Amino acid sequence: MREVLRRRFQHTELQDPQLIVIDGGKGQLGIAMEVLKEIGRTDLPVVGLAKARTESDFGSSEVKATEERFYLPGRQNPVVFKPGSEAFRILVGIRDEAHRFAITYHRKLREATSLESELDQIPGLGPKKKKALLLKFSSVEAIRAADADEIAKVPGFTRESAVGLLEALADAHSGALRLLAGSKTS
């Protein structure tokens, strides 16, 4: 929270927001207010949105939902809007869109890292050589199973670089196995 607000207000070329919406209740709003005070921007309107919670009593079959809560600086209790009101819809819509954006971003990051392979960790192996290897062998396992002479036939490789690649793959594989073995014993 602190970092995001500080970064946002370092960009003096951006217009001032008409409203700062904080995803969270009193605690997050308090942090935002501290940062705004530190940077001398307490003139900006701020609201904290606390998502409705579901409360359940394990002995009961009834589940109760709390209301969405909107916290304002200097006010002890939250403001509660009628669920169908325009203010309610706008603020909840902003919060939900921010959640959607964050979730999409984190999924993209996970996809990008899941597409990485052991080949990405080998120094000196650029995208062209990696692509050539995968076109010829189709997988890291197939490359690992190949001998140095087969790899040396791939454009951009010599016998020496093929031996280096196989050694690097063996080291990476044995390191991963050591990590797995260590996690099983702990």
Kindly describe this structure.
54% of the residues lie in helices and 10% in strands. It has helices at 2-10, 26-38, 86-114, 127-137, 140-145, 148-152, 159-185, and strands at residues 20-23, 46-50, 54-56, 63-65, 69-71. The strands form two sheets. A three-stranded mixed β-sheet has the order 1-2-5, with helices on both faces. The two termini are 34 Å apart. The chain contains seven helices and five strands.
Short description:
With 186 residues, the protein is mostly helical. The protein is 54% helix and 10% strand. It folds into two domains: 2-114, Nucleotidyltransferase, domain 5, CATH 3.30.420.340; 118-185, DNA polymerase, domain 1, CATH 1.10.150.
Core attributes:
5 strands, elongated, about 190 residues, mainly alpha, three-stranded mixed sheet, Nucleotidyltransferase, domain 5, DNA polymerase, domain 1, about 10% strand
